Amino acid sequence: MKALAEIQVVPIGVGVSVRKEVKRAHELLVESGLEVQLHSYGTNVEGELGQIFRAVETIHETLHREGTARIMTSIKVGTRTDKAPSLAGKLF
Amino acid sequence: MKALAEIQVVPIGVGVSVRKEVKRAHELLVESGLEVQLHSYGTNVEGELGQIFRAVETIHETLHREGTARIMTSIKVGTRTDKAPSLAGKLF
Amino acid sequence: MKALAEIQVVPIGVGVSVRKEVKRAHELLVESGLEVQLHSYGTNVEGELGQIFRAVETIHETLHREGTARIMTSIKVGTRTDKAPSLAGKLF
Amino acid sequence: MKALAEIQVVPIGVGVSVRKEVKRAHELLVESGLEVQLHSYGTNVEGELGQIFRAVETIHETLHREGTARIMTSIKVGTRTDKAPSLAGKLF
To answer: A34: domain CATH number?
Structure first.
């Protein structure tokens, strides 16, 4: 099922600056093969719902392995059956 | 990987009342085998990260099949390596 | 305007455990006079929309003054004109 | 207090397409005087925390007056004392 989503990864316990981990999470989304659009409050993605969720699992596994003790991720995900969703189609 | 999450399902296009679809989504979470706690802004769940995401996929597939044209779901998910997370442990 | 909301405060840079600051934020919500319901992923509140937002401002001001350098708060807020909203009315 | 925020307005009960109301909400943010950046999952804004919340109140009041019976808004808001926050500074 095709889906659009917004993914925001917040590492906890790495200090006041979270840039390194947030950048790493974005890189992993780029590598996932999903269409991605970075903005100041997360990364918007377009792809199969299952692929999106697997990408989030990969982010958690990778960041934990690389030393982040705690991760809080916020995901907004939308699907619809009346037409094919696209990130571009949500702009005006 | 053990995770805690909050899942809020918002059906779009079913009218001002969304109770029937939200209740159905909660039932599907109960049936998923995850530990669940209903509150006024969603359902908190405890379980494996992959199992949580599969439960959300099942909700989208089921609600679409049962007639909801558009679904927006908000998910907050947390994992940590310093100790075993639990929903109960987040209260004070 | 009467509103229902969910407020989740995430202090950044205080370490892996955020319990002290999250508990403090909840106390400030209790003191605000809003009706509050704590759960594992935030505090649900019922009250005037302006009062809810002022309570969130007070949380940010207070936690910063007490030493938290960075705060990320997630708010979901709902209003409706077809009937009087209540936290209890959202359960089933 | 300077803040960054993401605001996503979801009108309920207006049908499967929510474009008209979402566009109206974005226009009201532009008119608020906040710095705004539209993306596919909301509008990112930069400004005083109180000004941001007043803009959200104006959106709810205006959309209700113009006929939307129910509105669910998701807000992520961040403040920090270690440096001046900016939307541009969150990109990499």
So the answer is: 3.30.70.930
Nearest to B16 among D18, D70, D74 (CB): D70
* Closest of A38, A50, A59 to residue A3, by C-alpha: A50
* Structural domain range at position B72: 2-80
Q: Is residue C88 part of a domain?
A: no
Give the number of domains in chain B: 1
b/e burial code for range D18-46 (CB count within 10 A of at least 16 → b):
beebbebbbebbeebebebbbbbbbbbbb
Are the Cβ atoms of D16 and B15 closer than 8 angstroms? no
- The answer to whether position C91 is within a domain reads no
Q: Does the CB of B38 have a partner CB in chain D at under 8 Å?
A: no
pLDDT tens sequence for chain A (92 residues): 999 999 999 999 999 999 999 999 999 999 999 999 999 999 999 999 999 999 999 999 999 999 999 999 999 999 999 999 999 888 88
Could you tell me if residue C89 is inside a domain?
A: no
